[in-house]
C-alpha cells in the first residue's frame, strides 16, 4: 500500500514538473482569490471588491495560507496536489484492500484501478481534486461519508 502511494507520488510529481504553468479549469480563479485574500485579507477576485465566486472555500483557504510561505500559486497547487493526492490514495487503498480481504468486490477493484490512473493527471492541475481525494479517503467507512459526498 505504501509502495503504491510512493509510486503515485512519483508519477504525480513527474507530471507536475513537466507541465507548464497554465493549469486547467477554474484554477486561475482559485489562485486569484487566494492571492488577494493572502495579500489584502479580502476574499475577492478583484482587490477591494468583496465577492464569492469560488467553489471550494477550503481549497482557497489552503492556497491563501500557503501563499504566505510559497509565493508561487502554481508551484504551491502542484505541491499540495502531490502531497494530498498521495495521502488520499493511501487512504483509499487501505479502504479498498480492507474490503478485498473480507469479500471480492468488483467496485473496489475498479476504484483501486481508477483512482491512481485518473488522479495523477487531475490532482496537480490547480483544482481541489487532491483535497477531495484526501478528505473522502479520510472519511471512508464513517457514517458521515455519504452526507459529505452529497454536500461536496
Q: How are the secondary structure elements laid out?
A:
Elements: H1 2-18, H2 27-40, H3 57-67, H4 73-102, H5 106-122, H6 129-139, H7 145-151
Helix pairs in contact: 1-4, 1-5, 2-3, 4-5, 4-6
Average pLDDT reading = 76
- What are the segments in which pLDDT stays under 50 over at least 5 consecutive residues? 144-152
Q: Structural class, please?
A: mainly alpha
Number of domains: 1
How many strand elements?
0
Task: Give the SSE order as H and E letters.
Answer: HHHHHHH
Shape: globular
Rg: 17 Å
Strand content: under 5%
In angstroms, what separates the terminal alpha carbons? Answer: 27 Å
List the total number of helices.
Answer: 7
Estimated helix fraction: over 70%
Report on the biggest sheet.
none
Task: Summarize, please.
With 152 residues, the protein is mainly α. Helix content is 70%, strand content 0%. The protein has one domain (2-151).
What does this structure look like?
The structure is a single chain. With 152 residues, the protein is mainly α. It has one domain (2-151). Helix content is 70%, strand content 0%. The chain contains seven helices and no strands. It has helices at 2-18, 27-40, 57-67, 73-102, 106-122, 129-139, 145-151. The longest helix has 30 residues, at 73-102. The two termini are 27 Å apart. Residues 144-152 have low confidence and may be disordered.
Characteristic terms for this protein:
70% helix, 152 residues, globular, mainly alpha
Amino acid at each position: 500500500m505504501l509502495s503504491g502511494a510512493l509510486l503515485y507520488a512519483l508519477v504525480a510529481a513527474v507530471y507536475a514538473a513537466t507541465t507548464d504553468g497554465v493549469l486547467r479549469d477554474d484554477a486561475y480563479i482559485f489562485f486569484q482569490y487566494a492571492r488577494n485574500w493572502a495579500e489584502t485579507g479580502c476574499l475577492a477576485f478583484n482587490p477591494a471588491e468583496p465577492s464569492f465566486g469560488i467553489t471550494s472555500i477550503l481549497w482557497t483557504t489552503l492556497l491563501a495560507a500557503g501563499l504566505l510561505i510559497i509565493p508561487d500559486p502554481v508551484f504551491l497547487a502542484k505541491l499540495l496536489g502531490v502531497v494530498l493526492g498521495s495521502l488520499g490514495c493511501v487512504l483509499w487503498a487501505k479502504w479498498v484492500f480492507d474490503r478485498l480481504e473480507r469479500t471480492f468486490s468488483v467496485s473496489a477493484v475498479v476504484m483501486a484501478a481508477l483512482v491512481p490512473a485518473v488522479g495523477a493527471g487531475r490532482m496537480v492541475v490547480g483544482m481541489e481534486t487532491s483535497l477531495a481525494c484526501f478528505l473522502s479517503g479520510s472519511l471512508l467507512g464513517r457514517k458521515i461519508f455519504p452526507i459529505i459526498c452529497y454536500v461536496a
